[in-house]
C-alpha cells in the first residue's frame, strides 16, 4: 500500500476537528451536567474525526 500525500484541505479539516473538540471540552467543564455530557460526546466525535485517516489505514490493513 502506498502512502499518498495529504492535501491542504485534509490538513485544514483535521485542525478544525481538533479545534472544535478542544472547544467542546472546555465548554463542557463549565456546563451543567446534561449539557456537559453531550458536549463531551461531541468532543470525542470530533477527535475521532481528526483521527479518521489513521483509523481508516488500520481498518484497511485489518
Structure description:
Keywords: Membrane, Transmembrane, Transmembrane helix. The chain crosses the membrane at residues 12-29, 35-51. The chain is 82% helix and 0% strand. The chain has 62 residues and is mostly helical. It has one domain. α1 (8-30) packs antiparallel against α2 (33-50). The longest helix has 23 residues, at 8-30. The radius of gyration is 14 Å and the shape is elongated. It starts with 7 loop residues before the first helix and ends with a helix.
Poorly predicted tracts of residues: none
Going by helix content, strand content and strand pairing, the class is: mainly alpha
Give the overall shape: elongated
Give the overall average pLDDT. Answer: 92
> How many individual helices?
3
Helix-strand pattern: HHH
Number of domains: 1
Query: What share of residues is helical?
Result: over 70%
Radius of gyration: 14 Å
Transmembrane segments: 12-29, 35-51
Keywords: Membrane, Transmembrane, Transmembrane helix
Which key features would you list for this structure?
62 residues; mainly alpha
Give the topology, please.
Elements: H1 8-30, H2 33-50, H3 52-61
Short characterization:
The chain crosses the membrane at residues 12-29, 35-51. With 62 residues, this protein is mainly alpha-helical. 82% of the residues lie in helices and 0% in strands.
Amino acid at each position: 500500500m502506498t502512502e499518498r500525500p495529504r492535501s491542504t484541505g485534509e490538513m485544514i479539516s483535521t485542525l478544525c476537528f481538533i479545534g472544535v473538540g478542544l472547544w467542546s471540552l472546555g465548554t463542557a467543564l463549565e456546563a451543567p451536567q446534561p449539557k456537559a455530557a453531550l458536549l463531551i460526546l461531541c468532543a470525542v466525535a470530533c477527535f475521532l474525526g481528526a483521527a479518521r485517516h489513521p483509523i481508516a489505514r488500520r481498518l484497511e490493513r485489518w
